[in-house]
Each structure stands twice: as C-alpha cells, then as structure tokens.
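Quick illustration, no need to memorize.
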Amino acid sequence: METIWLSVSAGNGPEECAHAAALTLQVLLREIHDLQGTGIKASVIESEPAHEKGNIRSALLALEGKDAKDFAVSWTGIIQWIWRSVYRPHHKRKNWFVQVRPYAEPLPGEKFSLSDVRFETAKASGPGRQYVNKTETAVRAVHVPTGKSAVA
C-alpha cells in the first residue's frame, strides 16, 4: 500500500496563519475520521509548533489507504480562513492563508547531495552601533540545480 505524504504549512505568515494551519490540520483529521468507510489512515509524522500554544508552523502527515491519493488531491492548494485577529484586535487584515500540498517520493536515480547546496549568510544592518556588520544573523540555503531556497 502506497503512503501519501501531505504537508500543511503556514509558511512565513504571522501567528494568525499558524492558528489557521492548526485549524486546517484539525479539520483534515476530523474529515478522515468521519470518512471511516474509506479506510484512510492518517498519522502526523512531525509538526513544528508556533509561538502561541496550540498553533503550528507546519505539519507532515502520512496517509494510507486506497482512497488516500484522492483525499490528498482534494485538499491540495491554498486554504483561506477569514476572521478578525485575536492576537492583534485592531488589525485590518481578516484573510489568513495555509498551504496544503503532497510530497512525491524522489524518482529512481534522483539523489540529494549537499554539494548542490550553496549557503549564504547575511549580517545585520541599521542602527545597531558597534554590532552592525559584525554579527551574521541569517542564513540562506540555495539548491543550485532547482534554484529553490530557504531562509532562517
């Protein structure tokens, strides 16, 4: 039986998006539970917590069952939640977004090599006085063959 990997992510969004990601995960798992006749099993493999208790930055799920692929496809995309922020009550924004997408296993012969990743660091700027341009505060990893990058 094939395992389908499904990611739920708030990306770099604010805490409201992390709350929306937690709600998305709850609704997704509840829908699987309510569809017991399909035989889909879901396991949360890992999740990254956010600042506020109960919120998540991201989660990775493993789905198994004959209808798991169709279920994952039905959830794939950007999900919009609409509500006023409980974290910033006077904020005008009411739309919060979460991405849900499946991960495919690498094709035969595809291998990841750390030598294909270029690491770049950045130093602080602005009115930091003696610490400006002395402390590296960010790192970017760029996968050269695909051009994809991640920043921390």
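The first strand starts at residue 3 and ends at 9.
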